[in-house]
């Protein structure tokens, strides 16, 4: 069982949006995995083979327990049964306590499509009459993540939680820059077109947004998360709110 499993439409989505949260959990000893829905073969820069190598390097940097790719065709992340079953098998195999999925809205159609696919698949993963099997033919037991949270992508939302990622910021950015073909990296000397995310300004914006949300919680860097199905149940209010609020 994994403590947390994060899903992204493309290799690099998770690193870009929530890499610090993952690094902070693996550093604390929790078992974390990442599932990429596609190989990102429609990307303007790099190749799917290169992105597979980059994903492997990023996984090592973040200390992941597992990383897998469901190989749904890029640009075709339809919420159809064939794709749902791929997600369901992954959820039932890893049985995560928490699942992270993309933002409710995003400029990239694949991101929103991936979010809808995962959210509905998680529900069906808990139904006993939806049958799935491992590669060796053994039946899988139903499983539904106990908590599902959205990470922020291009369109902001008011977060339920902001994770302090200050202590792992350098590690988190190193994992992001492992995707040297996708994000700003002066060592990637290939004549390819500039994209929305490959320029230096976007790289600086990532840090600026993390500083913005970090400031709201009294931290240097923060990553925002939106709890999908509220409210959040609390047994001990004092335990949940034991840290002092830095700004009142």
Descriptive tags:
7 helices, 248 residues, seven-stranded mixed beta sheet, Rossmann fold, alpha/beta, 7 strands, single chain, 37% helix, globular
Q: What does this molecule look like?
A:
The mean pLDDT is 96. 37% of the residues lie in helices and 13% in strands. The protein is α/β, with parallel strands linked by helices. A seven-stranded mixed β-sheet has the order 3-2-1-4-5-7-6, with helices on both faces. The longest helix has 17 residues, at 109-125. The protein has one domain (4-240): Rossmann fold, CATH 3.40.50. It starts with a strand and ends in an 8-residue tail after the last helix.
CATH class: Alpha Beta
CATH architecture assignment? 3-Layer(aba) Sandwich
String of helices and strands? EHEHEHEHEEHHEH
Q: How many individual domains?
A: 1
The 3D shape can be described as globular
What is the H level of CATH, i.e. the homologous superfamily?
Answer: LmbE-like
Mean pLDDT: 96
CATH topology: Rossmann fold
Helix content: 25-40%
How many separate helices? 7
Radius of gyration: 18 Å
The low-confidence parts are none
**Strand order of the main beta sheet, please?**
3-2-1-4-5-7-6
Summing up helix and strand content along with how strands pair, one would put the structural category as alpha/beta
Strand share of the residues?
5-15%
β-strand number: 7
Major beta sheet, specifics? 7 strands, mixed
Beginning-to-end CA distance, first to last residue: 40 Å
């Amino acid at each position: 069982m994994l403590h947390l499993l994060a899903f992204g439409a493309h290799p690099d989505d998770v690193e870009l949006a929530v890499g610090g949260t993952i690094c902070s959990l693996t550093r604390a000893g929790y078992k974390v995995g990442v599932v990429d829905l596609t190989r990102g073969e429609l990307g303007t820069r790099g190749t799917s083979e290169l992105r597979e190598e980059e994903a492997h390097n990023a996984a090592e940097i973040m200390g992941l327990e597992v990383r897998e790719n469901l190989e749904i065709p890029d640009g075709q992340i339809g919420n159809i049964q064939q794709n749902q079953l791929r997600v369901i098998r992954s959820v039932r195999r890893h049985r995560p306590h928490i699942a992270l999925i993309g933002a409710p809205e995003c400029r990239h159609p694949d991101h929103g499509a991936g979010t809808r696919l995962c959210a509905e698949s998680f529900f069906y993963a808990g139904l006993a009459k939806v049958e799935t099997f491992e590669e060796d033919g053994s039946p899988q037991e139903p499983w539904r993540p106990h908590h599902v949270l959205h990470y922020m992508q291009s369109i902001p939302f008011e977060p339920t939680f902001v994770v302090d990622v200050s202590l792992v910021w350098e590690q988190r950015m190193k994992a992001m820059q492992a995707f040297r073909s996708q994000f700003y990296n002066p060592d990637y000397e290939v004549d390819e077109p500039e994209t929305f995310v490959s320029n230096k300004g976007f790289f600086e914006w990532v840090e600026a947004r993390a500083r913005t949300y970090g400031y709201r919680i009294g931290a240097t860097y923060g990553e925002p998360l939106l709890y999908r199905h509220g409210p959040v149940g609390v047994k001990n209010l004092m335990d949940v709110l034991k840290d002092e609020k830095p700004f009142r």
